[in-house]
Amino acid sequence: MKLFKTTLFAASLLMAGYASAHTDAFLDTQPSPHGGQVRMTDSYHFELVVKDKDLTVYVMDHGNGAVASGGMTGTATVLSGDAKVEVKLEPTTDNILKGTGDFKTADDMKVVVSIAPAPQTARFTPFQKAEAEPAAAETPATAAPAGHDMSTMDMGKKDMPATDATKK
Prior knowledge:
Immunoglobulin-like; alpha+beta; about 170 residues; single chain
């Protein structure tokens, strides 16, 4: 029974790492529900849609399902050209936070979105795609699946209890 619990615990840690390791480049290859750019935080996916002077942030779970935005507030820091503009984000309906600011849209525009009460921050380049992943043919067989950054995971066997199979 102890071996089963240890194996189950190790497997759950491994799967948690896969679930939380989508890269920006991977997310940029996926269709977004509202036509914006999706970024992942610890708890949510945020999708930023920029239209004229309006910023709309959709709050979603990691399966892109709507998460109620009531009680949330946020700030978007827009960096466009030489200008830096702060835009206050307020909940409107369902899973949406919106704000309007005096900024210019540009291809090199960057937006940092911070949402509270549980501080969640995401960085967007709404008119650029993140750097592409290497093609599957160029990826070594031992590499993580495309779009999964495994560099922060300790995949070693240190501190793992020995099992009967490894003692032999």
